[in-house]
Amino acid sequence: MTWLLELLWNTDDQRPRALWRLVLHTITLIAIAWTLSAVTRGLGFVGPGGLSGGGAVLTAISVGLGTWLSGRLLDRRELSEFGLRPSRIWLADLCAGLGIGAALMGGIFVVELRAGWLTIEGYYVGAGPGQSFAVALIDPLVTFVAVAFYEELFSRGYHLRNLAEGLCFADRKFMGPGTALLLATLLSASVFGLMHAGNANASVISTINVGLAGCMLALGLLWTGELALPIGLHLSWNFFQGNVFGFPVSGNAMGPRVFDVSQAGHPLVTGGAFGPEAGLIGIVAMLAGAGMLALWVRVTRGELRLWRELALGSSVEDQQVGSKVKQSA
């Protein structure tokens, strides 16, 4: 029975092993989401699911609460240790991520427009009857804030870190922290891609490309140890993609949008009805995004290094020291 206990329990850290933490975390999120959904629908606060502010906020609460509980009970760490430690540099990273996402999507729009793959049909469309355009944008903005938070906390904050810890062997002879982080990034990004495989207009190509987007988003965590850059980039990429430039967002057609466009060009290049991330132009933008992230981290930190502590199970105190070092850089 000792071998079975070792398979399930890490006696050194006094917690379940990484695989079981991931499984129990998922079960916890499902249970909380189901409970909150049942309660709010019973009270008439939230309608049927879908890409809407109410549903997205409910999911964000479920993921945040579930990750906090899993962190305390399974991981033996605080929620902040999953990359949510606000500070001056954290907020600066968040703003940088927002700017990078907007710039990337703006670049895609300009390239497609100049190449003749887009036709602008109108401006400031999609608001409801008697509703101002600015008010109409509130719901999608809240939606994408919530989506960026819960998808990054789930995929990068919890999944990537626990996968890296589970893959990094104590003696480091078989797999050290660097290799563990690389493999954990690929695995978590693959799950991220599969999470979008059921979206409207999804395909094998779109699923692979969303996985590549997950790798790009992970770079912000790998190079800073925090989720600020991924959250900011994820938020502005989605919002500018759909509600500013009028593209579909992961297969979802947007309502209120600054530019009302009709799409032409080959879907393998533009992404077609799924959105730019499913096309070659999206891959180019991801590569550009990786370069912009690297430049920002290099300028603000003075170096570009892999945050190996993510795979080593560092404590709250270790993370606090790292945060102070980054702020003084």
Keywords:
two-stranded antiparallel sheet, mainly alpha, 4 strands, disordered C terminus, two-stranded antiparallel ribbon, about 325 residues, protease, endopeptidase activity, single chain, 12 helices, membrane, Rce1/LyrA-like_dom, transmembrane
Walkthrough of the structure:
This protein has 329 residues and is mainly alpha-helical. It has one domain (87-328). 65% of the residues lie in helices and 6% in strands. The protein has twelve helices and four strands. It has helices at residues 2-8, 18-43, 53-75, 88-115, 133-136, 138-167, 177-195, 204-224, 228-244, 267-270, 280-301, 316-328, and strands at residues 9-10, 15-16, 118-125, 257-263. The strands form two sheets. A two-stranded antiparallel ribbon has the order 1-2. Helix 4 (88-115) runs parallel beside helix 9 (228-244) and helix 8 packs parallel to helix 11 (280-301). The longest helix has 30 residues, at 138-167. It is globular, with a radius of gyration of 20 Å. The N and C termini lie far apart (50 Å).
